[in-house]
Design a protein that fits this description.
By secondary structure, this protein is mostly helical. The protein contains 7 helices and no strands. The protein folds into 2 domains: about 140 residues; about 50 residues.
Length: about 260
Amino acid sequence: MDLKLRYYLGSMVFLSGLIISIAGIGFGIFVNLMWTSDPIEIMTTYSLVGIGFSLTLLGINLMISKQRPYGLYSNIAMVTGFILSIAGVIYFLMIFQDNWVYPYATYLVILYASGISLLSGNAFANAVLRVIGEPSENLSTSSSNKNYSLEDIEKEVEKTLSQSYSTNNTNFSSFDLGVKEDDTSFVPCKTFKSTQQERIEVEDFISEAKNLQTTMTGKVETGDYGLELTTKMLSETMKEKERDQNKSIFNKFKTKFNNKRK
């Protein structure tokens, strides 16, 4: 069967089964279906739902069924499952009014469940095979399409180069391998021009730095020459007096040390 025809039939069967199932559920809600309802209402509701569910699964199987070598087994499982499910619905219509007892009800459940299981399992298996097989098929197809001989590659390269060098061809941009000198005239801006600038020095006044310098040196600049000279003389006098005191102390210590030795 053609692939497009299979998808067409599968989608049509799937939608038909879905509509029939919804119709059966809607009919059961409409008649307020219960176990004590009329047997005809019960048979109509369950037969519509059973047939619709089987057709829905059949449509899915038709759309995703695998081709050979698994296509034959897939078709056998699909047809067998559909026949068993429809047979289960027909068997339900036959035994419901008169023989809805054990073991006939058990036969019905086994028959319909076997058909639904075959349809569901076949659809799942086809989906798995499609997921696994598509990458390998695409890879093999792409690799088979890219088997070029050495002559074909050389011809393709020559063709591409000839087309790229030709100026009349608009598919490739024309280019020239020759190196051309750049005629751009460089004009230096104002930053690059060497001009003599006036040097301006601004003395910073930081009070913290000045206080630190005064603390370290002990000198205070007053700007008055007389005061600074007097301060300097006083400082020298105090230093000389301190030296004399240290000298006298040393002499006393030396005298005591000599007396003790004697």
